[in-house]
Here is the input.
Amino acid sequence: MSDRDFVVEFAAAASLLMVHLSRLAEELILWSTREFAFITLADAYCTGSSIMPQKKNPDVAELIRGKSGRVIGRLTGLLVTLKGLPLAYNRDLQEDKEPLFEIVDTVLPAVRLMTGMLAHLELRPERLAAALRGGFLTATDMADYLVTKGVPFRTAHAQVGRTVRYAESQGKELWELSLAEIQQFAPAAAADIFAWLDLTNAVDRRQSSGGTAIAQIGRAHV
Here is the structure.
């Protein structure tokens, strides 16, 4: 009766949950902007702008992101209330009720709304695929490939860096270079390097638990 550890533990778990929801909400907000346009949020989870007729505001995602601060603040308040109490019952402990109930009333709708928002959003695979075409995303895979050819990773890292600089100067991605161009900087490279530079192969190569391979994603989804 002299502590409220069970309330604090619940508030801590709820705060962590809200942090994850907030981060996911931020992704959805960013991905729905015109600059990214990776997804389209359902109208039911958005509102129109009060001044710009063409604008679609991701209000539900923004509110979930904002509500996370309220839950984290309530956890902090509980800890501050408890920190100076002697080890006996004190009337200060009645201050646990309001934050506890508010946390419940905040987290449950946030989870339900996020579930609905994810279920009804529309992915734009053509935009996602286009975004993967730049930035030398398989440079690390090239270094890993060179290691399989017996090149020490430090050396492979340097060779790939020089290859990337060359590709930038030519306005090309790594997989757009010829084998001869690659071999200028990475002599151990052979024709099979292009399989390593393929984006689909790079994703599916991560077969460890929690990796990006299709089989791992399917296992996590289940």
